[in-house]
Specification:
By secondary structure, the chain is of the alpha/beta class. The protein has helices spanning 10-21, 43-49, 66-69, 100-107, 122-131, 145-157, 187-194; strands at 2-6, 25-30, 41-42, 52-55, 77-80, 85-88, 91-94, 112-116, 137-142, 161-166, 197-198. The chain has a single domain (2-198), classed as NAD(P)-binding Rossmann-like Domain (Rossmann fold). Residues 7-12, 30-32, 36, 56-59, 61, 64-65, 81-83, 118, 120-122 line the site of NADP nicotinamide-adenine-dinucleotide phosphate (NAP). Residues 2-83 form the Pyrroline-5-carboxylate reductase catalytic N-terminal domain. GO terms for molecular function: oxidoreductase activity.
């Protein structure tokens, strides 16, 4: 698959490496593609060339780039990795009053939004997948069945086990403040915790 990743930070680079190893054609999109120590394209080039797009940008970078994101072809599957975190009573919470994926889907009604990888810490993302492949669960959520299937396929390609938590309205479990964030679970433990099923 031609996979575009917007954002070249810890999540973007880590997932880029994992997905490339599984044979996907991965394009990383940067604000400054000429300055990165690895090949990158502009955000617009990645949007134009990709079959599926992962949003690995800080939450605060999404609205300033919304005009660009609205150039995504209708029906494109967009996997939202972004979190907006605040601290309340010493605990991490989402700063939004709705699931992050629902928020992004309302801004981008032309695409099919899925949510995945948001509860995985960047520090563990590559090591768990490479040292213990096909072992740890990654929760996925989407309203659209094809988007859910593609998110599940990419999770498998990254050498994790996808567990579906349902649609975007159920996806707050993998947002900050949800029971999965920021933890790793074995698939059965995740299913017991949130009632998810194999994706
Ligand atoms: N870190 C984690 O453990 C973790 C886990 C799950 C989810 N997440 C979420 O995943 C997203 C990415 O996290 P990360 O840890 O990879 O972040 P990061 O290391 O800070 O990287 C984010 C990247 O986004 C790009 N960027 C930053 N500001 C931008 C702007 N104003 N406009 C366009 N692009 C901008 C930058 O790439 P360029 O400089 O190349 O443009 C930057 O490298 C965040 O929303 C985060 O909450 C993080």
């Amino acid at each position: 698959m031609k996979v575009g990743i917007l954002g070249t930070g810890r999540m973007g680079q880590g997932l880029g490496d994992l997905l490339r190893r599984s044979g996907h054609e991965v394009m990383l999109g940067s604000r400054t593609p000429g300055d990165t120590p690895f090949p990158a394209l502009s955000l617009g080039e990645v949007i134009a060339r990709s079959e599926v797009v992962l949003v690995a940008l800080p939450h605060i970078a999404i609205e300033p780039n919304i005009a660009l994101l609205r150039t995504l072809a209708p029906g494109t599957v967009v996997i939202d990795l972004a979190n907006e975190v605040r601290v309340e009573d010493g605990r991490l919470r989402s700063a939004l009053d709705e699931p992050h994926g629902r928020w992004l889907a309302s801004l981008l009604p032309q695409v099919r939004v899925a949510r995945a990888f948001t509860h995985v810490q960047a520090e563990l993302l590559v090591s768990r997948a490479t040292r213990q492949p096909d072992t740890w669960a990654v929760a996925v959520a989407a309203d659209d069945a094809d988007a859910l299937a593609i998110a599940g396929e990419l999770v498998r390609s990254a050498r994790y086990v996808p567990v579906s938590v349902g649609g975007l309205d159920q996806s707050s479990v993998l947002d900050p403040g949800g029971p999965l964030f920021p933890n790793m679970y074995l698939p059965g433990d995740m299913q017991d915790l949130i009632g998810g099923k194999d994706a």
